[in-house]
Specification:
Helix content: 25-40%
CATH topology: SH3 type barrels
Shape: globular
Structural class: alpha+beta
Number of helices: 4
Distance between the termini: 27 Å
Number of domains: 1
Strand content: 15-25%
CATH architecture: Roll
Largest sheet: 7 strands, antiparallel
Length: 148
């Protein structure tokens, strides 16, 4: 593991993380008729000086469909992950924290229990390994660039 990767993991591990799901009808969050299939999003960073957080999305693994192998999640590693899943790093994004706070207050987001420390570390490691994370967001995660 490179010094840069170790540094980013130490930084990420020291950060507060939050896990939430989007309510149906707000963005791409899974089928409205099945609330248990709403996409799980993970906040990987504390709020930065620009007022942003880095988010990644958990998506169910489907046979014969594209997936990024950087971080595979087995069923029941989190209560909200009943099927084999993956982190869809190509959907990684920086979001203003005030938007997240307002979304939670308006019930657009529903906070759920955090992921385990071990899974959090795998998600962070996967972000640095993935070929699908925009370079700008990798640099932001490593503390080498702005969120926006």
């Amino acid at each position: 593991m490179s010094a840069s990767t170790e540094s980013a993991l130490r930084l990420a591990a020291s950060r507060w993380t939050q896990t939430f799901v989007l309510q149906p009808g707000y963005g791409a969050s899974g089928p409205a008729n099945d609330p248990e299939r709403k996409h799980l999003w993970i906040i990987l960073t504390e709020t930065c000086a620009l007022g942003a957080n880095l988010l990644v999305c958990v998506t169910s693994l489907r046979e014969n469909q594209f997936f990024d192998p950087a971080c595979i999640i087995e069923p029941n590693e989190h209560r909200r992950i009943p099927r084999r899943s993956w982190i869809e790093y190509r959907r990684c994004r920086a979001e203003r924290s005030d938007t997240l706070i307002q979304g939670e207050a308006a019930w657009l987001y529903q906070t759920v229990e955090p992921i385990s420390d071990a899974l959090f570390e795998r998600v962070c490691t996967g972000l640095l390994k993935s070929n699908y994370v925009p370079i700008r967001l990798k640099l932001y995660f490593e503390g080498k660039g702005p969120a926006f």
